[in-house]
Design a protein that fits this description.
Elements lengths: L17 H22 L5 H8 L3 H4 L1 H24 L1 H18 L6 H15 L1 H13 L5 H26 L5 H22 L13 H12 L2 H29 L7 H6 L4 H18 L1 H18 L5 H29 L4 H63 L9 H4 L2
Helix pairs in contact: 1-5, 1-7, 1-8, 1-9, 4-5, 4-6, 4-7, 4-16, 5-6, 5-7, 5-9, 7-8, 7-16, 8-9, 8-13, 8-15, 11-15, 11-16, 13-14, 13-15, 14-15, 14-16
Length: 422
Amino acid sequence: MPAAVPPDLPSGHRVGSAGYRRLTLALFAAGMASFAQMYSAQAVLPQLAGEFGISPARATLAVSATTLMIAVAIVPASVLSERYGRIRVMTVSAVVSTGLGLLIPLSPTFGVLVAARAVQGAAVAGVPAVAMAYLAEEVHQQAIGAAMGRYIAGTTVGGLFGRLVAALALDVTSWRWALEIAAIGSAVFAAAFVVLAPPSLRFVAHSVHPATVGRNLVAHLRQPALLALFALAMLLMGGFVSVYNLLGFRLLAPPFALPAAVVGLVFCFYLAGTVSSAVAGRLADRSGRGPVLLAAVGVTALGLALTGPGWLPTVLAGVLIFTAGFFAAHAVASGWVGRIAVTHRAEASALYLFGYYTGSAVGGTGAGVAYAAGGWTGCLLYVGGLLAVSALLAGYLLLRARRGARNGPVSAAGKSDAETGP
């Protein structure tokens, strides 16, 4: 049974409280552990292609297989958390996925590696599937944006850590040891989450039945604002992972021909996302989610355009801006889901993340085909199309929010004022 809500915590942890600091630090560590495991393979894709004699498009399966299985497992993991608790599901996920990460570098063939990465994806899904719902339940409503920004910041640093550690290790060892070193680091952060995560004070267990889960999912899909956010997650993540999957191939090849360790340093641009996600979360709480979301998509598109010319400073500046814009948009959109879905938040978060990781798996693979057909120009056109649709969706959400602000709260019909408000 969940613990009773103490009288001095009627509406969740507030900014500045000890509980808020511990919760956000624990989720930061969880984001570090899970995203380092997801994307460490991205840093060694050119080495995998060389060793196993495969194309860049096929090499990206080492990343896509993981994110595809995360997408598949997101809903089941969220359902389990409704019955057994957020902390328990996240803990099992962190421990099992870390153990698998330590074994994956032993894979004898590329096929075995892809299969093992797929299983790891299913195991790691418990952290992203539950973290958003756990945060939305335990944090005061006025602090959700800032708290979500901190969690997203952890995912950006985790993605950086996994990629950067693996990339730098390539200078002195093989891709197998590079992945092993990244997995050891992930295990440390997973342990930190297990130790730091405060118990759920506001969680109420629900019985799990397939028909009930189906009804909850359908109810969320019938809300236009949520549906737009789910689609936005898929498009934005599809574009983001496409750029980072193929960036290494571009920078290793002429006219740049950079060393592998130098290419790995490009992943430090993830720190731009660490900053932008936290800033965007705070701005969204103060100024409204719609304007901040649309601006973030625009910044992402600007960064993408700057990567087009074959001049290294422009390319690097573009990647930096692209990364900052993407994580700002993701922080705002994911926090908005928690505001709209006032009931069955785990299922709403799961649908958002299903779109997010489906975009990573399908979008990233599609970009490999575009790159094979047209090089970096093909990648730009592909990702640019995804961002154009993303901008339309963000504009729709902004207009809907402004209409809701003019019309006042929506009550009895079953939608919260957060759906149409900013």
